[in-house]
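Bench notes, afternoon.
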Amino acid sequence: MSTIRSESTKQPRRIRRLTAGLATGLAALTLSACGIAPVTAFTSITAPSGGSESGVAWFAGPTADGHEVRVAVARAEGSGVHPTIVILPGSDGLRRDYVKLAQQFAAQGFDAVTGCWFRLPQIAPTDTTAIACPNAPAFTGVSEASVSAVDAIVDTAKRATGADDAHIGILGYSRGGGAALLHAARTGARYPIVDVSGMVTAQVNSLDGHGPLPTDVNVVSTAGNIAAASLLFHGTADGIVVPDQSRMMRDALVAAGRTTALTPLNGICDGPCNHDVFAHVQSRSKIIADSSAWLHGRLG
């Protein structure tokens, strides 16, 4: 039996549709007028503010929810196909140091990509290391929303380097490590994962305002759904993301029959090996060397 709506019912609905349409149009006009409209397709871009490193190319790609991600690409030298490593920053957001890390991995024979899987709420005028990503998704930590953001980063990296699924690995630091593992759990992706000081239990002791969020996910509980091989590094004196998090992740993956290994970092930092393992020459060098060898063994 068909249902006939009265004019009194139709009118409010027309008004609501018109109002919604106007709101969407105004939002689009506002974004366009401010010059911050997200891209709708993969594209080459100029280096964003703070990201003008020599020899690095920049690209942007759309996310499923209407935002965009920006990535920096440092190419390996030589002809032929090179494996690609995607580097996911931690809660500090995309910074020049991650671009320099990509360049160091490029020297190890990778097409190295790093990018913003979320935007920083604000960048202080005195902050000369942050790279602006105003159209990236909001910061929600290691959340369900981060899965599509990581998807967008990987898809943009594929388009930028021409890599296929068999030649891509992911390195994530802190929340970036947790996001990489959660992405594998939710999507079934098998990209080998290097997790450095990963936040995987939805717990963090932070002094920078990025403490636990209600959206953070306990990734350890998803270990049975992670098919990707993983290599974990963690500073033994980490007071921000405690080392037990990586031990719990490793044990859960081993119990699930997954290929994984944990390398404790101790005695190779300038002082105790805290959360800032990339800030020390020896620990940074060890992570790059060990993970490069491990990834080349899986990606060619």
